[in-house]
Specification:
9 strands; binds 1-O-pyrophosphono-5-O-phosphono-alpha-D-ribofuranose; Rossmann fold; 40% strand; alpha/beta; six-stranded mixed beta sheet; globular
Length: 176
């Protein structure tokens, strides 16, 4: 089977929404230094574009996690493969994700980061798939687009590690 990609959210729509989010975030954190924590690998393109539109001082750090279980339905076990390089105690932290799906990744990360007593901890996700949510405790402050339960790629998101570099979000369709 070959996969075909249908454009779902255009490059222009993504960039416009990022400008809106950046304005809102810059307003909310006015006068503060914001610690952006990117969840690898998918979040890196969003972090890169969003951070360059922010009008506040930012610091950046990265975490990498992996989920166990079958390929599409997460088992809920999330292992931290790479932790922060610097502590976040007393800092204003914004977690940057490409997609919030079952919520299990962010739920685990929020528990892990809260233990360090940041001054604040919020979530910014480009995409939200609320239909798939399992972890009800994850409520993102900033959402780019709410999408239906399609298999999406591009703008950081992969299918078998491919398509992360696409400048748009595409829905994957399989053809014989
Ligand atoms: C994706 C995405 C989130 C997570 C969301 O990462 O980047 O981190 O899944 O899913 P959840 O809400 O069901 O936990 P993935 O494990 O595909 O890793 P990648 O970013 O390195 O591709």
């Amino acid at each position: 089977m070959k996969e075909m990609i249908d454009v779902m959210i255009t490059e222009a729509a993504i960039q416009k929404r990022i400008e809106e989010l950046a304005e809102e975030i810059s307003h909310d954190y006015h006068g503060l230094t914001l610690s952006l924590i990117c969840v690898l690998k998918g979040g890196v393109i969003f972090l890169s574009d969003l951070s360059r539109k922010l009008a506040v001082d930012v610091e950046m750090d990265f975490m990498d996690v992996s989920s166990y279980g079958s390929d599409t339905v997460s088992s809920g076990i999330v292992r931290i493969d790479k932790d922060l390089a610097r502590p976040i105690t007393g800092k204003h932290v914004l977690l940057i994700e490409d997609i919030l799906d079952t919520g299990q990744t962010l739920s685990r990360l929020i528990r892990h980061l809260t233990a360090q007593n940041p001054a604040s901890l919020k979530v910014c996700t480009l995409l939200d798939k609320p239909e798939r949510r399992v972890a009800q405790d994850v409520v993102p402050e900033y959402i780019g687009f709410t999408i239906p339960d399609n298999f999406v790629v591009g703008y950081g998101l992969d299918y078998a590690q491919k398509y992360r570099q696409l400048p748009y979000i595409g829905a994957v369709r399989f053809e014989k």
